[in-house]
Amino acid sequence: MQFSSNRRTALKLAGSAAAAAALGRPAFAQSIPKGTIRILVGYPAGGGTDVMARLIADKLKDRIGANVIVENKAGASGTLAGAALRDAPADGSVIMYAPSAATVAQRVTKKQMVFDLLKDVQTVTLAGTVSTVYVVSPTLGVKTFPEYVERLKKNPGKRSFGSTAMGSSTHFFGVEIGQAIGIPLEPVAYKGAGPLIADLSAGHAPAGCGGLTDFLTHHRGDKLRIIAISAPKRASAAPDLPTISELGYPKLASEGFYGFYASAKMAPGLVDAWNKELRAVLETAEMKERLVGLGLEVRTSTPKEFADYQLQSIEQFTKSMKAAGFEPE
């Protein structure tokens, strides 16, 4: 039997539709709406998350031909944005940009969140990974991690470190370093990086722990010294900085991440459309260069790859929390 060209095309389309249905995805892509697009951010304007979101929003405007704005929903350790996303229209007009500090860390360390990370929102794409760093005050007179350890042994009164956020990787990484070197390190709570940087520069705090994005500029300006980073490999923004693995403690290697989320109610076709557009923007040479300068190692993914990575991060973060002796609050 001979098939006409039109009939063969029809059969191919039918087969594609069936395959797509089996995968839980629509056969035909959906389009992002052309009206105003909102990117929700759980922190105030001017912070690192906000700055990155605005860089990405500017490039999205040109690519999708829509008005893209960043909407700040600060509060509750960055989780108010997740609650707003849960309640937002699922028509593709609202997405969220968030770090693992506002998603994974909150799910692990809080008995209750204002939204359910695994039920109320869905993953769209990873944006990149970030490192936690351990820093020392320039007044200590040490420049390397081994020198710091030797100083700790000789000065038992200098065994504390400031944390930019208790109950986060900036708390647990410092505690785990103390356990690994056999010298307990006591965390001291700070309300963000600003006050800690001021105390480190003045010598009021001997050491501290926070995000690479918080400390890199000040390290370059000699206001403090980064002596170890948590990432498995050296940071592109600062290739001179040694990793904790290189220093002899590979079990402490870890990294946080930033990613984009959609409402759990958003149709798979719209999620796929957003994945395509966001990855196209993030993977441009210009965007990579600008984000690396802010301490973000650009890395994109499919929605499922991001979901799997997030589950692995929850498991790893739970282990770090238990190792640090921290209980969910």
What does it look like?
With 329 residues, the chain is of the alpha/beta class. 41% of the residues lie in helices and 19% in strands. The chain is built from eleven helices and eleven strands.
Features:
329 residues, alpha/beta, five-stranded mixed sheet, 11 helices, disordered N terminus
Helix content: 40-55%
- Rg is 22 Å
Low-pLDDT segments, ≥5 res: 1-28
Q: What structural class should be given to the helix and strand makeup?
A: alpha/beta
- Number of DSSP helical runs: 11
Order of strands across the main sheet: 2-1-3-10-4-11
Instruction: Based on Cα principal axes, name the global outline.
Output: elongated
Concise summary:
This protein has 329 residues and is an alpha/beta fold.
Write the layout of secondary structure elements.
Blueprint: H1 5-22, E1 36-41, H2 48-64, E2 67-72, H3 80-86, E3 94-99, H4 104-109, E4 121-130, E5 132-136, H5 145-154, E6 160-163, H6 169-181, E7 186-189, H7 193-202, E8 207-211, H8 212-220, E9 225-229, E10 256-263, H9 268-282, H10 285-293, E11 297-298, H11 303-323
Parallel strand pairs: 1-2, 1-3, 6-7, 6-8
Antiparallel strand pairs: 3-10, 4-10, 4-11, 5-8, 5-9
Helix pairs in contact: 2-9, 6-11
